[in-house]
Design brief:
This protein has strands at about 45, 80-85, 90-95, 105, 130-135, 135-140, 150-155, 160-165, 170-175, 180-185, 190, 200, 210-220, 220-230, 230-235, 265, 270-275, 280-285, 290-295, 300, 305, 310-315, 320-325, 330-335, 340-345, 350-355, 365-370, 375, 390-400. A hairpin with a 6-residue loop joins strand 11 and strand 12. It has no helices and 29 strands. The protein has a single domain (about 5-15, about 60-400), classed as Neuraminidase (6 Propeller), CATH 2.120.10.80. Strands 1-12-11-10-9 form a 5-stranded antiparallel β-sheet, with no helix packed on it. Strands 20, 21, 22, 23 and 24 form a 5-stranded antiparallel β-sheet that branches. The chain has a 4-stranded antiparallel β-sheet with strand order 4-3-2-29, with no helix packed on it. With about 400 residues, the chain is mainly β.
Length: about 400
């Protein structure tokens, strides 16, 4: 394995050896699943706000919003496991006690009321569009419809803008030997080799649709779902954006309605793309071919892998939890509540907000569950009701950050 300063020539975690050795380029990736280009195009670097380096001393983790660690590991020395929620108006808040309470709520404008009086928080410079954790750092992207920013935090509360004037449809952490990379997902992606401090232009995925609606990491690949006007396409990169490939078999039913529902998750040799419409598309060959399966209803939460099964929540004629051992055959179990954006800790605790439209501010709720079926509704004193939550993830911070 090569060191982090040559990430775009190393093999990402979970991928077989064979990546090219060239650094990142600006030319479009090849169509179809092919070997990476071994040329060495020039590297372009976006300017951003410099950030003082903080070395957390943590190993690479794959704990983004759409891929969960299958085994509960002990927290790194001096660290506390936390859930971090991302919302509109650049809102963030975190839980340091396994989802029982949420603290340090903040946003760019606490007084604003989303979707009231003509305020469209889905299309503004601070719209929440994706958050990921890796190697001791949280990185979030904000902005849709208007240019926004990428922000970086090591404590879950203090955020530094490291790239401005851009919009992305998601944020992914791609683990690799030496520290991994963050990838900001769009038709013109960016990648960071230094834990979100600076950003490089990557190759552009070849696709006929424009907007990235979902992003994640699985089967050794950064995975992007692009969707417009009911047509969805998939792009995969095994080298954090240096080159992109597309599956040779991709059913037309796959990848629909992925934003804050469903998502991209992997486990037991399966890469799974879950749509908000309740269609799950699975690949057992690293993303080369996919087959679709109906889950039985719509999906309102994120999808997760527990180490033994894939799970998500949604609605049939009632609130349900979907479960599958292989991503192909699904069962439903009645769930006590309508679950929205969700996350899972390394120890297996699930947290979520309530699903639905106009259910924020005074109507906002936070949930916690140890089995995914029965949800505890947190008392109002346990969190601050505010702007809509769009994403959640799990990571680690210094214990002092929770005080």
């Amino acid at each position: 394995m090569k060191p982090i300063d040559r990430l775009f020539g190393v093999t990402l975690v979970g991928l077989a050896m064979g990546c090219g050795s060239a650094e990142i380029g600006s030319e479009a990736g090849e169509t179809g699943v092919v070997a990476n280009d071994t040329g060495t195009p020039a590297v372009e670097t976006d300017t951003g706000t410099p950030v003082v380096e903080t070395d957390t001393g943590m190993p690479a983790e794959d704990t983004g919003t759409t891929a969960d660690a299958p085994v509960a590991d002990a927290p790194p020395a001096g660290k506390v496991g936390v859930f971090l929620a991302q919302g509109h108006v650049a809102r963030t808040m975190m839980s340091c006690d396994d989802g029982r309470t949420w603290i340090k709520n903040r946003s760019d404008n606490d007084a604003l009321r989303c979707f009231e009086g003509g305020v469209d928080c889905d299309h503004m410079e601070s719209a929440g569009r994706g958050i990921a954790y890796g190697n001791g750092v949280f990185v979030a992207t904000f902005g849709w419809g208007k240019p926004g920013s990428i922000r970086r935090s090591t404590d879950g509360f203090t955020w530094d803008k490291t790239l401005e004037g851009t919009t992305f449809g998601g944020m992914v952490y791609a683990p690799a030997d030496g520290g991994g990379a963050f990838v900001a997902a769009s038709r013109s992606p960016r990648a960071s080799l230094d834990l979100g401090k600076t950003w490089l232009k990557t190759a552009e995925p070849t696709a006929t649709v424009w907007n990235v609606r979902g992003a994640g990491f699985g089967a050794g690949n950064v995975v992007l779902v692009l969707e417009d006007s009911g047509k969805a396409e998939l792009a995969l990169s095994a080298d954090a954006g240096k080159t992109w490939t597309r599956p040779t078999t991709w059913p037309s039913t796959c990848g629909k309605s992925i934003q804050s529902e469903g998502g991209i998750v992997a486990g037991k040799g399966t890469l799974l793309i879950v749509g908000g419409d309740g269609v799950a598309c699975r690949s057992t060959d690293g993303g080369k071919t996919f087959a679709d399966a109906k889950m039985g209803g719509s999906v309102t939460s994120y999808a997760h892998f527990t180490g033994t099964e894939f799970v998500a929540w949604g609605r049939t004629d009632k609130n349900v939890m979907y479960r599958s051992a292989d991503g192909a055959t699904w069962t439903t179990t009645a769930s006590s509540h309508a679950v929205g954006p969700s996350a899972r800790s390394d120890a297996g605790t699930f947290v979520a907000t309530n699903g639905g439209w106009m259910v924020w501010y005074e109507k906002q709720q936070f949930y916690r569950s140890t089995d995914g079926v029965t949800w505890e509704v947190l008392p109002k004193a346990a969190f601050t009701g505010s702007h809509p939550i769009r994403g959640m993830t799990f990571g680690y911070v210094d214990a002092a950050a929770c005080k």
